[in-house]
Design brief:
CATH superfamily: NAD(P)-binding Rossmann-like Domain
Helix content: 25-40%
Strand content: 15-25%
Mean pLDDT: 93
Largest sheet: 6 strands, parallel
Structural class: alpha/beta
CATH architecture: 3-Layer(aba) Sandwich
Number of helices: 6
CATH topology: Rossmann fold
Distance between the termini: 28 Å
Number of domains: 1
Strand order of the largest sheet: 3-2-1-4-5-6
Radius of gyration: 16 Å
Low-confidence stretches: none
Shape: globular
Order of helices and strands: EHEEHEHEHHEEEEHE
Oligomer: single chain
Number of strands: 10
Length: about 210
Amino acid sequence: MKIVVFGASGGTGQELVKQASALGHEVTAFVRNPDRVTGRDRLRVVVGDARNSHAVATAIAGQQAVLSALGARSLANDSLLPRSMALILSAMQQNGVRRLIVLGASGVWPDAGKRLSPAMQFLLRAVAATVLRRPFRSQRRMQELIRASDTDWTVIQPPRLLDQPGRGRYRVDGEALPGGGTRIARADVAAFMLAQLTSDAWVRQSPFVSW
């Protein structure tokens, strides 16, 4: 399948590119800095800013699916995700691309931790209201745009992401994080995201995934 990965130079984005290439997909990596992309001989690399409509449209043209692992590099940046997603959705419509798979964040939604311990629920609420207040606000705005679109979208909602080898297994829930599910490796999140390319089980839904 021909796919484009936005945020391909980030931690989860790099996993998406690596695993998608290994699965035989034709991958376009959209990045701001091409030096952060490895294995470029097997990729089409588009260098640009996700807030630039022409660059986004160029990357999406001819694709069969769009995956996004975009994330701001600063806790103070709360505009990247909604601005870039608006352009992605517009380019998808213009090019007749329907499948959209996006990395979200479970802490955005108040009920996400309802199956966790009371202490962990309190911690999540405190972090969401302070340190991650602006990034989570950006995430909510992005997800609202996605949900209002007519694309075949899936937004994956993980807890804390770890930069370590995946386990090759994970739990998925449609309403909240599975009990005790407070972390997961980026590699396993990427694997779940890529699995959605050949499944309609979570189309127009926001599944929570964790170990």
